[in-house]
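so i finally got all the pieces together for this one. its two components total, 1112 residues if u count the protein bits. some of the lines might not be protein, just check the labels. i wanna see the whole assembly predicted at once instead of chain by chain like last time, that was a mess tbh
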Amino acid sequence: MREKSNSEIGGFDWLTAGITFTLILIGWGMIFASEYQTDSGDQLPSFFNMSKNYGKQFLFICAAVVLTVASQLLEIKFYRAIAPIFYGVALVLLVAVLGTKPVNGATSWFSIGSFRLQPSEIAKVATCLMLASFLSLPENRFTNIKAKIQALSIALLPMGLVLLQGDAGSTFVFVAFLLVILRAGMDLWIYILGSLLAILSIAALMVDSTEGLFLLLVLIGNAALIHLGQKDRRLLLAYAAVGFLSYNFLNELNYWYMMASHGVLLIGLLLFNLRKNWQLSATTLGGIVISGLYISSINYLFYKVLKDYQQERILVWLRPEKCDPLGALYNVDQSKYAIGSGALIGKGFLNGERTKLDYVPEQSTDFIFCTIGEEWGFVGTTFVLLLFLFLLLRIIHLAERQRSLFAKYYAYGVACILFFHIFVNIGMTIGVVPVIGIPLPFFSYGGSSLLSFTLLIALLLKFDSQRLLVFR
Amino acid sequence: MQQDIYQPRQYIIQVVMVLGIVALIGKCFQLQVWDESYQKQHSYRQALTLYPSRGLVYDRNGELLIYNRAIYDLQATYNTVKKNNIDTNEFCRLLGIDRATFEANMDKDFSTYRYSKRKPFEFMSKVPADSFAKFEEHLYKFPGFESIRKNVRGYLVHSGAHILGYISEVNKKDIRKSNKLYKSGDYIGKSGLESNYEIQLRGERGKKHVLKDKFNRIKGRYKKGDQDSPASSGYDLITSLDIELQAYAEELMQNKRGAVVAIEPSTGEILSMVSAPYYDPSILAVDLNRQNAFLELSQDPSKPLFNRALTAKYPPGSIFKTIMSAIALQEGVLTPNRSIPCGGAYRYGSLRIGCHGHGATSSVANAIRVSCNNYYCQVYKELVNLYGFNHPEKGLQRLTEHLNAFGLGKKLGVDIPGEAAGSIPSVDFYNKRYGQGRWKFSHGVSVGIGQGELEVTPLQMANIAAIIANRGYYYIPHFAKEFMGEESNILEKYKQRNYTKVLPVHFDAVIDGMESVVTAGTGRRAKIPGITVCGKTGTVENPHGKDHSTFIAFAPKENPKIAIAVYVENGGYGSTYAAPISSLIIEKYLRGEIQGQQRQALEKRMLEADLVNIKKTTSPSTSSTEEEALESIEPNNSNQ
């Protein structure tokens, strides 16, 4: 927890700052590459052409540097004190933006002249501060249910408002705060249950018929009963083998035979355990019934609740074979082709034809990763991803060395927001997650996102530099 | 700071993050390294072929004969066309097609691999430039349609079709042979000079690699053009043809069958080559009607596509006596003044070859003038028996070598395809037919007078005239004078002299004889006032119909400028058609015009003579001259 080089009050963590700045500079180069046109002759165009995104990005970078320096002038006390006010202002802005004219189907921006402000970016920083501030108070330990609900509300309130704007991407980012709340001591079973539900939902959407899933539930139920009730590893292994074979050779003809045989076994096991351990039987039966009902209803929910374009995005993700390669699949396919065409070492700086020829949408913003993939290949994508991972782990390291809980939970907030952005953004360009329009931190062109991400890091660095001042 | 019981949860979060990033790296590995199908997707770039302009063709005086002209192919991409809802009516009106044609051209069988709804296919081809111009202005209104400009040949002249040749679309064999240099739809020289000099004329193709965006628009050059190569145009060809003379010779040969070949003896350059019937080269120019025109020509029973001047193998007849004289003089069988009495026929045993009543042949020149059959049968006998009566194979071998040196029995190597070798009966030939040692000179004696198993092309006949004019050597007859700017030595072989085995001195008697043929012999109709023409008529016996009329000549006697052979099928006596036509071509070439009333009247008669359409008409000259009477008693029994 102590580092020799740090002075009495902690010192500035140049490593984190260096990684961040490196990422920003690489990102600037990528924006330049994504806009550079092969037919513009031998002369490299100026990096500072203000009519281009890369020129404007330079201004944003300058602004980010200024913001970082300015943010260091204020004390951690100040940030903690203004957190509720800042949070309140952000909420007001989120409400106010609902009254503006929609851009691309979402009311997410305030337009002031040519400058556009995205309040959800501000809300991210504000929520991060607010949540950290809330969790740092001793009376808000998660010993009472009220504190738990309050903590969740702090994260979910702005999330709801962003959802009202029609900006699914930014909405999703607020899920990141759930990880912070987990770190602060929220009940683990909620997360496990949530993960199970998510897996069930995905599984239900990935198959045409849910009958196979029901059999799977019975198989899992039987396995659980054998494992927990009989405590016999050999028996469990034997059943696992039988279950695996049954599931693999499942077809329409033998379905009911299999269902019947495994069902009889389930009833037998339930009855057998009823006397010894009725809780186990009850939990298993309940789990199977609830999961079955959930699976049955998920398709209904999917088609009734989600909008057409949202359904389509999820289908592109989970069921690409059901989508039109020239329609819904096109963007993701082109994005994958662009990244894939980079091969091991890439085509070289400025040689990414696929991205430049508009095959890839939003090359300098949401799909900036395509330029990295095409021009620098697997080497480049791995380098960037590892650099990001290093940054994330470094931030968690910083978090854990804070004495102040405020600074600690704030740092976790920063790490989780960054992780969500990175995972969702890169994941969507390579087809791992559905297409959700959120920027890649430090890479994507855009002032709001660059400044908000820089501010997140800058405040963290400020708090870290003051970590040795005992402060709660 | 109090104890944080939830501290281990930092590892849950770290594990989630590490697993997330590792999953992303894993997927990148699959896309970029493992699964190569993503790397092989090249739809965004395309190699365009840059077509060079084909070399132009000029005549010897610099007149342009063949130029390049544009035609257009129209390509359509089904999906783009259907998506954009174009104004079909306007489209059809501008292009001059009807709605049904439009639908038919659009409706390809997309279930086969040949067509794809996403890739361009040929909608219309060979649209001429003038009808395309108006449409092209409006092309932007019809997304999904693309025009491809192609260069094809345009002709400024209406003669010389057999020589110039034509281009046409490559077939599968051409593509295979060219190692896929040509693509389906490309044009290649298919006959004549276009075919022979395809490599020089076609130039070198270029390649341009372009990048296309997702709307299929060209956005730039692939790798800044590093892999591009420019097209370089073909070499312009200056031919040896005198196009004015060619047109005149064709006119003289209208309504006749046969051939004319005129050579400049001092260079071997072919001034004119006519194969009658002929056709206008422009009717085989690439356009929409070409297929029909070609079908019509190829089905015409008179075979206009067939180049008689190169491929027809005729017996030479009496014109052969000129080289027989030269060879015999060289071999010492004859002396210039040797006299052989003629009893009106050559007789050997039961063999009899008739001659015409003429006075004694006092010399070689005299024998040529009166075209004595007896004289040349005797010469042939003495040549074959040179090594003794019982060794005809030795003498015949010697004679064959001489004849080969005169360019007979082999391809001369002219620079347009299709040349026939002709044939001269060799030792092998007689051995095969009669058995070794079982034949004598008498079995081939009619060869001595140009009949029998001799097969000579009109080109070889003209070459004989050139050899005599040159007194013993020739250049390979050819059409290519120069490729402008070309530096290789493909034309080198046409600059080398090919010597016969006869010394120049032995041609004196022959040439004197040929002069007297025109001044006082069978070829008097070839006489041109003021120009000394040396010639020799031939009347070739034709078992299938009327005799063929033939004539070889060169002029002027001193420093000859033109050597010519004319062969008129079923023209009768050599003096009737071949001699006058030869003399008219000679005069036209040397003077540029036909002078004198008598000559102009002759020209008129030759132009009007029709040997094809009205078979029964008599020859233009009703009054047979004495010389024709002499010639009429040409032999009618060849060797058995």
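Chain A touches chain B through 52 residues (CB under 8 Å).
The beta strands of chain A are 110-112, 115-117.
anyway lmk what u think
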